[in-house]
């Protein structure tokens, strides 16, 4: 185990610094491709919906105004949440969790696994951690050379340990974790509403275009097109009662409907799954492998009840729940645990929160309990 504590990444002979730097920048640029794809799709959807549907197709001014106002509200909230998820300030693990050089030397020179476990236990005895590895030892990251706080995990893509890591999402080019989990939930929710809104408003025109196409096929206009001519009936069908929309505009609207439908299905399942995780106070990683405590694995080890679990992510102020501003409780390091004794006066683990000194507990009904400064 001693050898496993070291990060022995040795560059092959002749591997120059320039090549390593070039590879690093290429990898960083490559990771932005999914984000650019999402931005491109949203940009095109703006053109398809605002220009082709609202301006060129819909003739009612009142209907245009209603659609445009609602669309831009959803777009702004969706884009704002997406921006905050991507560029959230992911704070590093505090220095007190990192092993000093002297402790690291002792750890690397230890000859047995028990000796290493003892060194880590002695170092972590004053740290606010309750979770353990499968073997019952302190959770330690040999890459970052630190003891992992509760619910923290190492992200191999970001090459760092992340507080309350849920997963690394390529669509935001960032880890979804304590610092941006609320933003990620809002991003999924507003993206789902955005797609559902486009679907519902495009559906009547999609049906009309589909009926027009069926009439077009029934009149054998496609055969006439092959020989280079059109009948008056075909021209009437093509021009139709669709305002100024041309054939290209119709394709944009139909395609926007199908793209919104496709994304709504995937977003709906993903958003529903994360709502389940929020209600049970679990991360994606904890859903697949329950956190290990001194008494064993417990998938509900951090659950404080559905409502308290919700407030742990979204905060105490209902007027801020739907706004992508940070209102999550805590600091990402210490988490309340459910009381084992039901006769206690609080649902929170007071012993855990007492580590924060005189700071307000997270579910106190006052504004200062959101810990925005952390």
UniProtKB/TrEMBL annotation:
Enzyme Commission code: 2.3.1.225
Keyword Zinc: no
Domain Palmitoyltransferase DHHC: 139-288
Main location: membrane
Record membrane topology: Multi-pass membrane protein
Subcellular location per the Swiss-Prot or TrEMBL entry: Membrane
UniProt keyword terms in alphabetical order: Acyltransferase, Membrane, Transferase, Transmembrane, Transmembrane helix
Keyword Magnesium applies: no
Segments passing through the bilayer: 32-58, 65-83, 183-207, 253-273
The reaction(s) this protein catalyses: L-cysteinyl-[protein] + hexadecanoyl-CoA = S-hexadecanoyl-L-cysteinyl-[protein] + CoA
Family: Belongs to the DHHC palmitoyltransferase family.
Free-text comment about domains: The DHHC domain is required for palmitoyltransferase activity.
Protein name: Palmitoyltransferase
Species this chain originates from: Vanessa tameamea
């Amino acid at each position: 185990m001693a050898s496993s504590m070291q990060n022995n990444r040795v560059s092959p002979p002749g591997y120059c610094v320039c090549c390593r730097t070039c590879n690093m920048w290429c990898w960083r640029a490559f990771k932005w491709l999914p984000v650019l794809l999402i931005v491109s799709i949203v940009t095109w959807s703006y053109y398809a919906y605002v220009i082709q549907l609202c301006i060129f197709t819909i003739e009612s001014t009142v209907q245009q105004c209603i659609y445009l106002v609602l669309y831009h509200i959803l777009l702004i909230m969706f884009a704002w949440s997406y921006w905050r998820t991507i560029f959230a300030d992911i704070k590093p693990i505090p220095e007190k969790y990192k092993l000093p050089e002297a402790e690291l030397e002792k750890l690397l020179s230890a000859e047995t696994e028990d000796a290493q476990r003892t060194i880590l236990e002695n170092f972590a005895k004053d740290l606010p951690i309750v979770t353990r590895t499968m073997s019952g030892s302190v959770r330690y990251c040999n890459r970052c050379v630190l003891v992992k706080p509760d619910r923290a995990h190492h992200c191999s893509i970001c090459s760092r340990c992340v507080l309350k890591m849920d997963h690394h999402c390529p669509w935001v080019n960032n880890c979804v974790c304590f610092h941006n989990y609320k933003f990620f939930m809002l991003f999924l929710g507003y993206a789902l509403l955005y797609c559902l809104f486009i679907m519902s408003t495009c559906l009547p025109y999609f049906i009309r275009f589909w009926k027009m196409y069926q009439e077009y096929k029934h009149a054998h206009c496609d055969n006439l097109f092959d020989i280079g001519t059109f009948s008056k009936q075909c021209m009437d069908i093509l021009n139709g009662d669709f305002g100024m929309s041309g054939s290209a505009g119709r394709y944009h609207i139909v395609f926007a409907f199908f793209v919104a439908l496709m994304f709504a299905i995937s977003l709906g399942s993903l958003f529903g799954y994360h709502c389940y995780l929020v209600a049970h106070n679990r991360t994606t990683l904890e859903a697949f492998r329950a956190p290990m405590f001194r008494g064993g694995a417990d998938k509900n080890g951090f659950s404080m009840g559905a409502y308290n679990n919700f407030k742990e992510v979204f905060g105490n102020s209902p007027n801020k729940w739907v706004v992508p501003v940070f209102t999550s409780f805590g600091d990402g390091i210490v988490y309340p645990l459910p009381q084992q004794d039901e006769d206690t006066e609080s649902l929170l683990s007071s012993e855990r929160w007492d580590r924060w000194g005189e700071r307000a507990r997270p579910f106190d009904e006052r504004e200062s309990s959101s810990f925005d400064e952390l």
